[in-house]
Design brief:
This protein is an alpha/beta fold. The protein has 10 helices and 9 strands. It binds ligand BV8.
């Protein structure tokens, strides 16, 4: 079936879609960036200064993923992908695996994935559900102390940008969910879509984001309420 009037849908998600699953957001009152200095844990300089501290920070986040499950907002996006006859691409800033576990398949992790690690010596990327330390050895090249989280830190190039930019240029519906609109290039996507001039733009967020005024439609409330309701409207032509 086809979502009323739309063919190619791009959905951007941020930490807010995972909040009701129990994962901390970054910039809310008790968010991650109120607990640690992002310069220390989410930059290449921070990693170079103290790799053990950065690896331990990500080990704790990774362990936290085992204690949470997808919520109805993740499930609604997976249902949209299953039932919409056109294209649905989810571009997530999140490094958790909740979209996959809810069933989303056409998915780009533009800020990487917490459950993957990368060897800085040989470039191998592999799945890792446990801890990584400065004493960990790369299974591919055997080097020790060169493994880092396969996530995008500040001042590093986000992943999948060519595919993302092509999808933004041709979409006719852009939905932004659970993001504060603080971090670029993701925060600039709505402006990119408006410049392309063919898409309807919708913000589904707990409260107005930094970019709220750029969206043609804004629905505010908890993601597990507003996302299933909006997907139902799309699929049932309401
Ligand atoms: C790059 C790592 C270029 C993962 C993260 C000045 C101006 C413009 C840009 C810049 C600038 N100075 C520097 C930059 C670039 C910089 C940037 O944007 N800085 C900002 C702070 C100004 N960006 C970068 O560095 C990016 N790279 O630009 O590269 C380049 C070019 C050439 C060559 C090389 C490089 C890289 C950015 C990625 C950084 N990595 N995390 C990890 O370690 O864990 S950022 C971090 O913020 C997370 O990834 C997160 O995904 C991202 C965005 O945060 P949100 O998801 O929006 O979360 P937040 O807490 O902010 O908001 C939550 C929202 O949810 C709120 O609105 C809240 O109301 C809502 N909410 C809460 N509960 C609910 C809810 N909504 C619904 N329901 C609920 N229940």
């Amino acid at each position: 079936m086809r979502a009323t009037g739309f063919e190619r849908i791009v959905v951007l998600t941020g930490a807010g879609i995972s909040a009701e699953s129990g994962l901390d957001t970054f910039r809310d009152e008790d968010g991650l960036w109120s607990q640690v200095d992002l310069e220390d844990v989410a930059t290449p300089d921070g990693y170079a200064r103290d790799p053990a501290y950065v690896l331990d920070f990500h080990n704790k986040l990774r362990a936290g993923l085992r204690r949470v499950d997808p919520n109805p907002a993740h499930a609604a996006l997976a249902e949209l992908e299953r039932r919409h006859a056109g294209e649905v691409l989810v571009v997530t800033q999140n490094v958790d695996d909740l979209h996959e576990r809810a069933g989303s398949g056409n998915l780009i992790h533009m800020h990487g994935e917490l459950l993957k690690i990368r060897c800085q010596a040989c470039g191998t990327v592999r799945t890792e559900t446990g801890d990584v330390t400065t004493g960990s050895t790369c299974a591919a090249c055997g080097q020790t102390g060169r493994l880092r989280p396969h996530v995008v830190w500040f001042h590093e190039m986000p992943m999948g940008m060519d595919e993302i930019n092509a999808a933004l240029a041709r979409c006719d519906l852009f939905i932004s969910i659970g993001t504060s609109g603080n971090v670029y290039p993701a925060a600039g996507f709505v402006a990119d879509v408006r410049r392309a001039g063919r898409a309807h733009t919708v913000e589904l967020n707990l409260e107005p984001s930094e970019s709220a005024s750029l969206f043609a439609e804004r629905i505010h409330g908890p993601a597990s309420d507003v996302v299933p309701a909006y997907v139902s409207r799309l699929l049932n032509g309401i």
